[in-house]
Amino acid sequence: MKKNKTTHAMAGILMILFVVAFLLISGRFLYIQASGSVAGVSLNEWADNVRTTTYTLDSERGKIFDKNGMTLAYDMPTFRMYAIVTDKYSKDSEEPQHVVDPEGTAEQLAPLLNVDKAYLLERLNNGVKNGQSQIEFGSAGKGISIQTKEKIDALKLPGIKFIKENSRYYPNGVFASHIIGFAREKENKTENGIKNEIVGVTGIEHEMDDLLKGANGYISYQRDIYNKKLLDPNEVIQMPDNGDNVYLTIDQKIQTLLEDVMTQVDNKYKPERMSAIVMNPKTGEIVAMSNRPSYNPNNPENVKNWYNDAISTPFEPGSTMKMFTWAAAIESGVYNGGEQYKSGQYKVGNNKPVGDFNGGKGWGMISYDEGFALSSNVAASKLVWEKMGPDTFLKYLKAFDFDKETDIDLPGEVEGQILYNYPIEQITTAFGQGSTTTPIQIMKAATAIVNDGKMVKPYIIDKIVDSDTGKVIEQHKPEVVGEPISKDTAKQVRNLLIQAVQSERATGSRFKLDDYSVGGKTGTAQIPNPDGGGYLRGQENYVFSFLGMAPADDPELMMYVSIKQPTLEFESGIESGSVPVSFIFNNVMENALHYWNIEPDKGEITEVSDYKIPNLINKSTEEVKGILNSAKVSYSVIGSGNKVVKLSVEEGNKVLPNERVLLLTNDPAMPNIIGWSQRDVLKLGEMVGLKTEIIGNGYVTSQSIPEGTKLGENSYLGVELKTPMEVKKTKPNDNSKNNQAQSNDTFE
Q: Where is the chain membrane-spanning (predicted)?
């Protein structure tokens, strides 16, 4: 009985526990059913997550183009190779899915991947030995092109697999590498694990990375346990937002020309550094920019110079700074170009005398205009110390923005420094020593000289375009950022720059072009001694430079070239630092101007005229000819009438250098226009009312209306033009008649 009571008691307790447990479990199930959640987790959401699979849709990085739409950087599909080395993947498979023969596999892959067989075999054997499922091949297995992948696929090697990736590709190699920069793959941690993406490292790739990289999309849908899409998959597709395209202001053809010429100079003269910039000075657009040493962004290894020296490496510029010294003196009202001074040496206080570059000998008593053409340090020093005063000169240096960055749209810009604490520093700054600047700062300041006093901001990004829609998101436009000098001062400085190239003893005479006139200024700057005070000595220890603009009367292109410590060959004194500089400048400018179809002006400006046309209408032809002859103005008379009824230059306007003034008489007849420029032909057609058709570029070599023919409105005039270089290539007999027909229609 006692046992039965105990058994019944235990059974009752168990029954109670069972009932309690049943109620708890049932209650729990009822709660879950009612609430649809467990531990705060929604079962519906959890089930959706389990059933839902998601794949990333990679965005495409934006392309980089030149101004004319040539592709400079784009994403190229590549492949990463890996190998399955465990036989588990081959179970229940008719064909092996793993590497069966490591040695044979390595032997066939080695020549296609351009690596040693031993390297690949070691990787495969280590994977098998360590019990790995799959292995990769390091850098040898990355960035494989589609052509190489197809060759490997054709071998039908079991266990060799590929993953598609994108890599950044630069089709022109070294071309503009410091501008474009490069982008590389980088591992980034995300919520779904590690994700590889291309990230800009230098240049435009870095500067515009946020716009170029875009945003990935995704596709998600619900599936069953066999990974098959459900009938009602609740599919969601978010398309990727591809990166925007960036168009640069550089011109691929001019940039290629610059790269080729700089490579030639680099190979021959082996300089420490070189930089060059080609700019449209009217807008501030950078047409070309390059440095040496450079690098190939497709394989940026063993790079000797990461810096874009044209914007990132300040240096003492030398005599190119003198154009701004003279501009400041002219603008401040203290300059008299004809005033004489004694060249040679100049001393202020107890400081060491400043000497002209010819060993301090100078050229005796010369004018300040001559001093500019001869690049006289003494003239520059006297202008600052005696004429303007250091405080006034400093004001103009700051007006030209030599104390700040240009804010060009490239990363890594570093501004120069105005060293101006002591009298000797104030004087040496006048001729480009002591104070530092960058090539881009000099170019920006020089735009004020080209643009009648208005200084424009340099820029290299032309526009940003949505790659999906083609819509222009942002269009860059020229921006005036200062007006340090007046229009008259700018013109006077341009005239000085012309004489610094064209005059007989000018230091820039090497920089004359065959077909275009040039204005510019040379520079030969000493290099500070890195081991102590003072400067390096020796004929090659300089930075040789030149800033030039052409055509000189209305510059369409401006170029700056600097070469540091070239290896020079001094043969009978004919070789100098300006030779490699002029080789770059002359080749690039001459060809670039022709490529842009800029009208040649024969490369010479013999007179720089400031003559302002008076009222000459209805005066006798002989009287007008006499007035223009006295002013040394070039002109041509249209017809044999006794009275001038119209001029090609309006009253009150100044005559440009080398400009031909057309005098239309009251009895118009066709003049001999052989040798005329396209501009002059168009002016003639406009004055007389001719229907003009022009074939070619350069100067007139044939005309459809014979000389002396009476002219009337709507007459047809067809002309053929050739450049001086094209004329030189023709046989002497081909143009004998034209040569004989060259009329002496100026200074009549």
A: 12-31
For 621-740, the fitting CATH number among 3.40.50.2000, 3.40.50.1100, 2.170.190.11, 3.30.10.20 is 3.30.10.20
pLDDT band at 310 (very low <50, low <70, confident <90, very high): very high
Token pair in block for residue 105: 């596999």
Please determine, for residue 385, whether its predicted confidence score (pLDDT) is greater than 90: yes
Are 558 and 565 a contacting pair, CB within 8 Å? no
**SS3 call for 331:** helix
pLDDT digits (tens, 9 = 90+) for 338-350: 899 999 999 888 8
Q: What is the DSSP string of 708-742?
A: T-B--TT-EEEEEEE-HHHHHHS-GGGGHHHHHT-
Which H or E run includes 501? helix 487-502
Question: How does residue 732 score in pLDDT terms, banded at 50, 70 and 90?
Answer: very low
Strands 716-722 vs 519-526: parallel, antiparallel or unpaired = unpaired
Residue showing tokens 């447990």: 21
Could you identify the residue written with the tokens 């109670």? 16
In one-letter notation, the amino acid at residue 733 is N
The least confident of 21-30, 166-175, 208-217 is: 21-30
- Whole-model pTM: value is 0.73
Q: Please state, as a whole number, how many other Cβ atoms lie within 10 Å of the Cβ of residue 147.
A: 8
157 contact partners, CB below 8 Å, separation of at least 6? 99, 105, 108, 109
Question: How is 442-499 classified by DSSP, letter by letter?
Answer: HHHHHHHHHTTT-EE--B-EEEEE-TTT--EEEE----EEE--S-HHHHHHHHHHHHH
Half-sphere exposure at residue 510, Cβ-oriented, CA atoms within 13 angstroms = 20
What is the arithmetic mean of pLDDT over 178-196?
70
Write the CATH number of the domain with boundaries 55-247: 3.90.1310.10
541-561: pLDDT as tens digits: 899 999 999 998 889 999 999
480 token code pair: 């005036």
CA-nearest of 458, 151, 702, 90 to 694 is 702
* Residue 736, token pair as written in the block: 């004998």
How far apart are alpha carbons 601 and 677 in whole angstroms? 8
- Residue 386: is its pLDDT beyond 90? yes
Domain ranges, ordered by start, for the chain: 55-247, 253-295+309-595, 621-740
Tokens read off for 92: 């229940």
Non-local CB neighbours of 485 within 8 Å, separated by 6+ positions: 327, 328, 330, 331, 396, 399, 448, 449, 453, 493
CA 341 to the chain's CA centroid? 42
Residues 28, 30, 33, 37, CA torsion sign: negative
Rounded CA-CA distance 717/534 in Å is: 66
End-to-end CA separation in angstroms for the chain: 154
- Sign of the torsion angle spanned by Cα atoms 161, 164, 165, 168: positive
Q: Which residues contact 569 (CB under 8 A, 6 or more apart)?
A: 575
319 is catalytic: yes
Sequence-ordered strand ranges (E) for 299-425: 340-342, 345-346, 354-355, 365-367
The domain defined by 253-295+309-595 carries CATH number 2.40.50.140: no
Q: Which range, of 90-104, 261-275, 335-349, averages the lowest pLDDT?
A: 90-104
The structure tokens listed for 519 are: 């204005």
C-alpha to C-alpha distance for 570 and 552, rounded to whole angstroms: 31
Residue 262 carries which side chain, given as an amino acid letter? M
What CA–CA distance (Å, rounded) separates 426 from 384? Answer: 8
Q: Give the DSSP H/E element, type plus range, for residue 245.
A: strand 245-248
